[in-house]
Amino acid sequence: MADFDQTVTFPQEVIEYQTRDGLSIAAAWRSYRGLTLTQLAEKSGVPEPDIEQLEDSGAAAQSDTIEKLAAALNCSVDQLKG
Predict the structure, then answer these.
(1) Contact 51, 8 (CB under 8 A)
(2) HEC states along the chain?
(3) Nearest 5°: CA angle at 77, between 31 and 59?
(4) CATH architecture, domain 13-81
(5) Tens digits of residue pLDDT in 23-37
(6) What is the pTM of this model?
(7) DSSP label of 7
(8) Largest CA-CA distance found in the chain, in angstroms, rounded
């Protein structure tokens, strides 16, 4: 079993987006912040196709990409990684 930080917390809405709507953690955070893909791309400096791929596949992104997205979503890197 993987180790995880039990001190990382998530807003209830983020969890609901994941469980109720089946969104990835990245998509759930974007929805929680009320941002479109285009808005998040502009705010983070991460190309929209890269964000879309991360949200759709849940594939691991490079650490600098995760850091940019976390800053734009006003959450921690640990929260964005789930």
Answers:
(1) no
(2) CCCCCCCCCCCHHHHHHHHHHCCCHHHHHHHHHCCCHHHHHHHHCCCHHHHHHHHHHCCCCCHHHHHHHHHHHCCCHHHHHC
(3) 70
(4) Orthogonal Bundle (1.10)
(5) 999 999 999 999 999
(6) 0.86
(7) T
(8) 37
